[in-house]
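hiii so um. not sure if this is the right channel but i have a protein structure encoded as tokens and i wanna go backwards to a sequence. like what aa goes where. can anyone help
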């Protein structure tokens, strides 16, 4: 029976779209969808696609569909386009996942030459899960077991474009252990008050791009873990949310270096931070964060537009006794304009053990948007030496250390 279904599906696909560039189009809706649930249909279509010797397409057509969980694993023999035109919604119970090991709602692993496209929506339906998330109070929190929405691991040479990801139960999307993956014209949305709904989390990857996208969430718009090389974030609009964060880094000494992150031509609107680097104190990690560029950024009412925090220690989970051993160097901050919702427009809280090195700062124009009676915007400096060019508003610190602590 199983075999017959599969063959029928393949023939349908070819017959229905004879002019397609794809040898086969596997339309999920033709696979005995029950009450709109495509869980089994998608897995069957995906299996055909990964085994296809030539390029194929898996199609989720227009319409409203529900999906329990799907692990869309490779290896695939040939390119696959995953064309999502409809709205795919998760079930609301965060623990009702068939694969208990799965940390994702839709996981795409061990794949190459994948295109995700189609203008559709992945709706994580996270409202119930968020109420069960107590991570701000509890380090071993429940939500560590809540699934990601759309998770890419061990993926090469792939493009994710023209899709919307919304209301994930936890991190909305991630890209881990991958090489040459581009996110383009992606829209990621969750309410400002939803916990840990990071937009895209990127770690252990090389040559990743996020372009022309809009991200508004309850946590970081984009966050970076360790072992990163060559990332470009360009033309991204971020807010609400916590901004774009490199780190937190250095929590364990297994972490590896972060090299080459450029954040260019992005706009931050009502976010807690603009661009941020954060590292843990009192750990043995000596990783390096180098070749970082923050350029052409517009801040609109951002609480901390630019912040380096080498004393990152949330919920008193660590001690501040020993300075961070993470070395930040070769940092360029250029052409940052707009308004700061607090007076702390620029905060450079670098490590006393490893002061920030080779920093260039130029063309800054950030104005405090709050009560003018409080004074203007300021720069705070600890353990940083920089070269400055062009306009500096607020003025940069005269001394490399100004002992004001980082506000929490
Ligand atoms: C991705 O590229 C890496 C490094 O070139 C390679 O080792 C790995 O097998 C590739 N993975 C896939 C799924 O193609
Ligand atoms: C990177 O991936 C894209 C697909 O997004 C592909 O067209 C391109 O050839 C890949 N680049 C390399 C160097 O393999
Ligand atoms: C910068 O971003 C804006 C707004 O997203 C866009 O209109 C403009 O084309 C971008 N500029 C460049 C040089 O990419
Ligand atoms: C600016 O940001 C502050 C703090 O996040 C917020 O309370 C305020 O409403 C924002 N103002 C505007 C005009 O959005
Ligand atoms: C959707 O939720 C699961 C669980 O939170 C999470 O692991 C996954 O990362 C989220 N999706 C994406 C794409 O993050």
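sure thing!! here u go:
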């Amino acid at each position: 029976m199983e075999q017959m279904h599969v063959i029928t599906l393949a023939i349908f696909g070819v017959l229905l779209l004879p002019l397609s560039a794809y040898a086969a189009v596997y339309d999920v809706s033709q696979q005995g969808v029950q009450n709109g649930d495509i869980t089994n249909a998608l897995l069957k279509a995906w299996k055909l696609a990964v085994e296809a010797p030539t390029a194929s397409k898996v199609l989720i057509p227009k319409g409203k569909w529900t999906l329990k969980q799907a692990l869309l694993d490779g290896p695939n023999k040939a390119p696959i386009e995953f064309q999502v035109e409809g709205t795919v919604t998760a079930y609301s119970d965060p623990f009702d996942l068939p694969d208990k090991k799965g940390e994702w709602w839709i996981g795409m692993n061990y794949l190459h030459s994948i295109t995700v496209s189609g203008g559709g929506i992945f709706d994580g339906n996270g409202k119930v899960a968020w109420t069960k998330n107590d991570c701000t109070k509890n380090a071993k929190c429940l939500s560590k077991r809540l699934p990601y929405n759309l998770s890419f691991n061990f993926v090469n040479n792939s493009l994710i474009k023209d899709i919307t990801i919304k209301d994930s139960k936890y991190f909305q999307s991630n890209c881990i252990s991958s090489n040459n993956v581009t996110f383009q014209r992606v829209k990621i949305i969750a309410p400002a008050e939803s916990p840990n709904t990071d937009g895209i989390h990127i770690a252990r990857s090389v040559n990743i791009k996020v372009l022309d996208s809009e991200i508004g969430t309850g946590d970081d718009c984009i966050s970076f873990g360790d072992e990163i090389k060559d990332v470009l974030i360009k033309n991204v609009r971020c807010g609400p949310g916590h901004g774009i964060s490199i780190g937190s880094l250095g929590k364990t000494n297994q972490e590896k270096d972060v090299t080459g992150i450029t954040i260019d031509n992005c706009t931050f609107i009502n976010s807690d931070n603009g661009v941020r680097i954060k590292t843990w104190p009192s750990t043995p990690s000596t990783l390096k964060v180098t070749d970082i560029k923050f350029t052409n950024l517009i801040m609109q009412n951002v609480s901390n537009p630019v912040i380096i925090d080498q004393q990152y220690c949330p919920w008193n989970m660590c001690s501040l006794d020993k300075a961070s051993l993470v070395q930040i160097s070769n940092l360029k901050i250029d052409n940052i304009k707009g308004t700061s919702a607090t007076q702390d427009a620029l905060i450079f809280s670098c490590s006393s053990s490893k002061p920030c090195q080779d920093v260039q700062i130029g063309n800054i124009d950030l104005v405090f948007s709050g009560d003018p009676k409080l004074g203007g915007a300021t720069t705070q400096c600890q353990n940083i030496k920089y070269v400055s060019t062009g306009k500096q508003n607020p003025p940069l610190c005269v001394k490399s250390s100004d002992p004001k602590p980082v506000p929490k």
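oh and DSSP finds three helices and 29 strands in the chain.
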